[in-house]
Specification:
The structure holds 2 protein chains of 2 kinds.
Chain A: E1 7-18, E2 21-32, E3 36-40, H1 47-54, E4 62-67, E5 70-71, H2 77-84, E6 87-90, H3 102-113, H4 118-131, H5 147-158, E7 165-169, H6 177-194, E8 197-202, H7 205-211, E9 214-219, E10 222-227, H8 229-233, H9 238-245, H10 261-266
Parallel strand pairs in A: 3-8, 3-9, 6-7, 7-8
Antiparallel strand pairs in A: 1-2, 1-4, 4-5, 9-10
Helix pairs in contact in A: 3-4, 3-5, 4-5, 6-7
Chain B: E1 5-10, E2 13-20, H1 25-38, E3 43-54, H2 56-71, E4 75-79, H3 83-91, H4 95-99
Helix pairs in contact in B: 1-2
């Protein structure tokens, strides 16, 4: 079983396949409690899949996924439902309900998962929107919000139930510099002040490195490296160096494997 | 899990104890409302010194009790907030609201 109480989430020997294709092979990841941990890697390397494994939206082919002392793949459906209440997820798309206004979007998990009276739900919605700076937008519909505002409303909804673990799936994608700065500040503030464990899946290096206490770099179905942002920046591993420095070519080749170019153009001679 | 309670420890003092979260919140709301309605005098103190842990639900309870007191024409004061509860209140910019 999981013996390390310093970890909020622990993946032990996790493998995951889609059909016959291996996405992860015997991966070990330990997410420290109360810290911001970045999970980084090139697009398509399976970062979001990793997040879904941690949230038990996907079951590993083999291995253990420990959250709060429970191995998620072994839980019954109802126990899993309870376990998920302590996890909040900020989806890449925001995933706001387009037919509900901002208030009802944030109130939604409170209405579904609690028996709190309406006056307390209103208090909590106002508090969460105040924290993300959007209390004044409470009556707006999602299509009246900018992309950055949508992401912040989704964040308010993700923290509505005071989760102990907050997962961010590519939070910085498509955000302008101001919105990015706001999100970076919010992720750090919520983590530190509310004692949340934050997991940030991202390929945006500068933003993630600026807030993460620890980073895992994944690729090729495995953990390529781990460490503090400074440690990874100084890594000798060419695969990590290529990612951290954004080099277009290196161990991860610029060209997808292809037949000989000359032969492709002129035909085999 | 510890039991959370709202009790009148002395006249005019509503004492919150235990873990204030989504499970305990609905019952505590009813208990506190009844205690404030039944209290004599113009002052109500919400004593949080026995709170073990609080989420945003605990802060909402304090706001609800302040509204109850205000509606009954009573003055309300919050005292004894644990440090972690106070830190959460700061995230939601409630420190000044709760200090009034």
């Amino acid at each position: 079983m999981s013996v390390d109480s310093a970890c909020a989430v622990e993946l032990k020997g996790v493998s995951f396949k889609r059909g016959s294709r291996s996405i992860f092979n015997n991966v070990d990841i330990r997410i420290p409690r109360g810290k911001v941990t970045g999970i980084m890697g090139p697009s398509g390397c399976g970062k979001t899949t990793l997040l879904r494994l941690m949230g038990a939206q996907l079951r590993p082919s083999s291995g253990e996924v420990w959250v709060a002392g429970q191995n998620l793949p072994t839980l019954s459906r109802s126990d899993l439902f309870d376990a998920r209440k302590q996890m909040g997820v900020l989806f890449q798309s925001g995933a706001l309900f387009t037919d509900l206004d901002v208030f009802e979007n944030v109130a939604f998990p409170l209405r579904v998962h609690t028996q709190l009276p309406d006056e307390m739900i209103r208090d909590i919605v106002l508090m969460k929107l105040q924290a993300v700076g959007l209390r004044g937008a409470i009556d707006l519909m999602p299509d009246e919000l900018s992309g950055g505002m949508k992401r912040r409303v989704a964040l308010a909804r993700a923290i509505a139930l005071d989760p102990q673990i907050l997962m961010y799936d590519e939070p910085f994608v498509g955000q302008d510099p101001i919105a990015m700065g706001v999100l970076v500040r919010l992720i750090r503030l919520l983590n530190d002040a509310l004692g949340i464990t934050s997991i940030v899946v991202s390929h945006d290096l500068a933003e993630t490195a600026s807030i993460a206490d620890y980073i895992y770099v994944v690729g090729d179905g495995q953990v390529l490296g781990q460490g503090t942002p400074d440690e990874l920046m100084g890594s000798d591993n060419p695969r990590i160096r290529q990612f951290m420095k954004g080099d277009p070519d290196g161990p991860v080749p610029f060209h997808f494997p292809a037949p000989d170019y000359r032969a492709d153009l002129l035909g085999a001679r | 899990m510890s039991e959370a309670t709202a009790s009148m420890s002395e006249p005019g003092v509503v004492r919150l104890a235990g873990v204030l979260d989504y499970r305990s919140g609905p019952a505590l709301r009813k208990q506190g409302k009844a205690l404030i309605a039944g209290s004599d005098g113009v002052d109500v103190v919400i004593d949080c010194s026995a709170v073990q842990r609080s989420t945003s639900v605990g802060l909402s309870l304090l706001l609800a009790f302040m509204r109850d007191a205000g509606a009954a024409g009573k003055r309300c004061q919050v005292r004894g907030m644990p440090d972690d509860m106070r830190e959460i209140a700061e995230v939601y910019d409630l420190d000044e609201v709760l200090a009034t």
